[in-house]
Amino acid sequence: MKIPGLSTDCTRAVWGAGLAVGLFAAASALHADQDREDAFVEANLISIFYHELGHALIDHLGLPVFGQEEDAADVASILLINDQFDEPSAVDIAYDAAFGFLAEAEIAQSEGADVAYWDVHGPDEQRYYTLVCLFVGANPDERNDVAEDLGLPEERFETCEEEFELAQDSWGPVFDDLENEDAEGKLVFEGTRDNLTADVVLAEVSALNDVFSYPDDIPVRVEHCGEANAFYDPSDGSITMCLEFEDHLRDLFAEMAD
Ligand SMILES: [Zn+2]
Asked: InterPro entries in the record, alphabetically (predicted)?
């Protein structure tokens, strides 16, 4: 899937040749940085949206979860990234989603926070390695260089193909049923438009509605929540992507770029 309408072209006046070339290069670099930052934000919004969809599926379909639900939602997200995109886009998204976990870990470390072993989510570094491992395990021959590039130790790499197969055996039949189901339920976008989060989420809602249906509608809200967060709310079966999250992701990008 390509996300439409997320990059704009700059038009520039042409001045004296030498000056124009220098300014053009500087402007291009700035523009490239902005594009890079936006791509990082988009990739992480997609990865997080898929994670929340994992929670939604567990609840709406009454799926059994053998282990931590947060881990199951992470696995659903990685499989959907692998399934829904062509190879170059999937690789780009996996890199940026992985970097998102690393940046979270770096910020926590720089603030002197202890690793939150008590948290319902696994530690960010562990989520990073699991993402890399499962993504590489989906296509180990072609993604060997991704594993090397992202520092996945050989010891873990050895089990990644099997780990992916187990994940696929768990979530794969669920996704297959959603494709074959006569169900009427769809993802229903609600909330504020004309912002990057809404653009990304609307593109995902549209693409996923082309392939999946659910027993009931799943409301997808993009709105201000007063915190940088994204969550599934079992009380009304809805996914919320908070508008504040985008700024947090831009902070993560700045951390990563340092
Ligand atoms: Zn979660």
From this structure: DUF4344 (IPR025644)
Q: Which two tokens stand for residue 121?
A: 């989510």
List the chain pLDDT tens, one digit each, 258 residues: 333 333 322 222 233 344 444 545 555 666 778 999 999 999 999 999 999 999 999 999 999 999 999 999 999 999 999 999 999 999 999 999 999 999 998 888 888 887 777 787 878 999 999 999 999 999 999 999 999 999 999 999 999 999 999 999 999 999 999 998 678 999 999 988 999 999 999 999 999 999 999 999 999 999 999 999 999 999 999 999 999 999 999 999 998 887
What span, in angstroms and rounded, lies between the C-alpha atoms of 20 and 57?
54
CA distances from 103 to 39, 74, 245, 257 (A): 15, 17, 14, 9
How many angstroms does the Cα of residue 9 sit away from the middle of ligand 1?
Answer: 36
Q: Are strands 218-223 and 230-233 parallel, antiparallel or unpaired?
A: unpaired
User: Distance from the CA of 12 to the center of ligand 1, in angstroms?
Assistant: 44
Q: How many angstroms is it from 88 CA to the middle of ligand 1? A: 26
Distance 32 CA to ligand 1 centre (A): 32
Distance CA 225, CA 246 (A): 12
Domain ranges of the chain: 40-257
Alpha carbon distance 59, 212 (integer Å): 16
Neighbours of ion ligand 1 (CB under 5 A): 70, 73
Helix axes 124-137 and 154-180, enclosed angle (nearest 10): 70
